[in-house]
């Protein structure tokens, strides 16, 4: 499913957060939003998911304006994994994952056979089948993140929005989470849009990078065309050496110093 944004402007009170943002994400691609703290990355995710209402501009899912699609239909096609997630202390992994089926259940109805099969499928895809009865609060950071991704997967979405999915995870769990996201993208064809802080990880796991700076679109394209000395100096204020990872076919950099 394609995602298209045209002329998006978003304010918090009188402060402009996003300014005339436009881009088009092709079906089946992984696009990562990068930029300095406070640049508007999470605001963009929240607006695309209809959590925030823009001042102006349009968002389209396969050429259909999201403002003309009912909420339940949006939830059937677009799953959102927010940065901050709260869950009851007595909820199991399987119960958490079952919440992903709610957009598909008619009012007053219970989970059916097909729903149970999809929940089991989501648990299997995320490697959680043997742990389904454990309480979510007892899980490690990486396991917990997989549980939330499994819930999103149970929605059977066409597009998956992830707001900083590696936050608070150590490097092993960061890679585990991103490897899972890439596997789901490749095997299921899910379009992924996520926010990451680690630029090297963003370059490695993305088809496209979307750069936001001071609420404006600074660049959008393949990692090899976006990761540059200009980007690192002007946007992130560092001087760095850039190399090519030929195994993963992506650029990476090593910082040298902070620029003035």
Description:
This protein has 260 residues and is α/β, with parallel strands linked by helices. It contains nine helices and twelve strands. The protein has helices at 41-48, 71-77, 93-98, 113-125, 141-154, 171-188, 199-205, 223-226, 229-234; strands spanning 3-12, 15-25, 30-34, 56-61, 64-65, 78-81, 159-163, 191-195, 208-213, 216-221, 238-245, 250-258. The strands form three sheets. A six-stranded mixed beta sheet has the order 6-7-8-3-9-10, with helices on both faces. A four-stranded antiparallel beta sheet has the order 2-1-4-5, covered by helices on one side. Strand 1 and strand 2 (15-25) form a beta hairpin. Helix 4 runs antiparallel to helix 5 (141-154) and helix 5 packs parallel to helix 6 (171-188). The longest helix has 18 residues, at 171-188. The chain starts with a strand and ends with a strand. The mean pLDDT is 94.
Reading side by side through the largest sheet, how are the strands ordered?
A: 6-7-8-3-9-10
Q: Detail the poorly predicted runs.
A: none
Q: Which range does the strand content fall in?
A: 25-35%
* H/E element sequence: EEEHEEHEHHHEHEHEEHHEE
Estimate the mean pLDDT confidence.
94
Which structural class should the secondary elements be placed in?
Answer: alpha/beta
Q: Nearest-angstrom radius of gyration?
A: 19 Å
Number of helices: 9
Share of helix, binned: 25-40%
The biggest sheet, with number of strands, parallel, antiparallel or mixed sense and barrel status, is: 6 strands, mixed
Keywords:
single chain; 260 residues; 6-stranded mixed sheet; 4-stranded antiparallel sheet; 9 helices; 32% helix; globular
